[in-house]
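User: I'm curious whether this sequence folds into something compact or stays loose and floppy. Could you predict its structure so I can see for myself?
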Amino acid sequence: MNQNIFRDADLLPELLGMVLWDRYWLRQAGDVVKADDFKPVPRVGGQGENTNFWIAANMGLEFFMKNRIPIGSLLNQEIAKWAKETNSSSQRVMEFRTFLKNIRKRYNPERSKVLVEQVVEFKKRVLRQRMLRELVELETSGQLTEEAWLEAMRKGVAVSSTNGKVTDWVSGMVGRQQRRLSRPHLRKPVMFIDDLDASIQSVGRGELGLWLGAYKMGKSMAMIGTGAAYLWQGLNVLYFTLEDPLVAVEDRFDASITELAIDELGRHAETESRFELFRSRLRSRIRLVDGTGGGMTVAQIQEIWERQRMSGFHADAIITDYDNHIRPPVSRKERRFEFSDIYREYVNMCGNLDIIGWLAAQAKRDADGKKIVAGKDTSEDISKIQQVTLAVGIGQGEWGDDSRYLYIAAHKYDRSRFGFNIWSDPSKGLFYDRQRTLEYRNHDGRPKAADTKGVMG
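Assistant: Here's the prediction. I'll summarize afterward.
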């Protein structure tokens, strides 16, 4: 007889924690676990049943089925909704909140992978035993048909595999629409670059974005600007620097956040006061990884992400600066084939981990000084553009030395082949100087974008 892991008093709080807060666990096991797995076994007289696990699991799993993300901090809204629907007393709501606080203490992301395996194995055993009993009964009664046999096999395969999940597109339509209407920003965070955000959707989970530019045109600043934009939106960022020294990256982030010149950092009290204002809100959401000692493979990048997740830091985005220092999984005679392998692995990593990915890439030498940096300007391998969701070229702007022309070189799901000017401020580590950009347009009378027609990607 197999033990029901959902009746294990020690495991149950951990399992509920996974339902409420763990993205990885839900992606692997969320479709096979049901709220009724947490339903208490009826006792004699129905007295003393703890329904808290069942109620919370129902909230978490319903939210996941609609939005494909953990309920997380939105749990408070669901509690308020539940209290109103059930007419629960204030004391009952307080007891339920206390229960969830204790569950949060028991939640341990290090156990995520182990508990995925245990839950899936348990579900497979239960289904296998049930299918065997049904097949024996059908065989005994002479009613075992080819169709019944194939149906049993189909159900077994559906639970056995945690990869390549198949969903019913029609039945999921209502849930998808609710997700888009209620929380559109959770899937496609903005870049905090006005014309870009107004013109196209950016990169979402499971997708890879690319900043493409010539030497000294601000690729690293663009990557830091992307990371900072995600921090302001409450996302956790794992930032890999494979070329620039870690201290330089730290200074650029600090300057970008405080909007002080890099040379002024640490020179006067204003730096500390501004930095303290953002320290607890932003710095706790980013981890910097120094990979300047010879580069890393995509597998090593993923391994670091996994270790950080197990330590409690679940990164929503991996930003790597830049692709030339990522080592290929195998050596090849031509560099373009190595880049193809690297990008394929990176895209797969983003999909498997359900994260946002960004890379920076060097443009060809003849792109130096050009206004429009397009896909054809990609150094080494044009297939980089084909594998990413969004590629943005960084060219020399028309307004001055520190202006940049951003060209949407490619977009799989939105318009591309158009661009616009912006101002940068290298002294402050700002890729996009919003105030100066908007002031220049207002005073100069230029249109908001130099060329916004574009085509669909």
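Summary: The chain has 16 helices and twelve strands. Confidence is low (pLDDT under 50) at residues 44-48.
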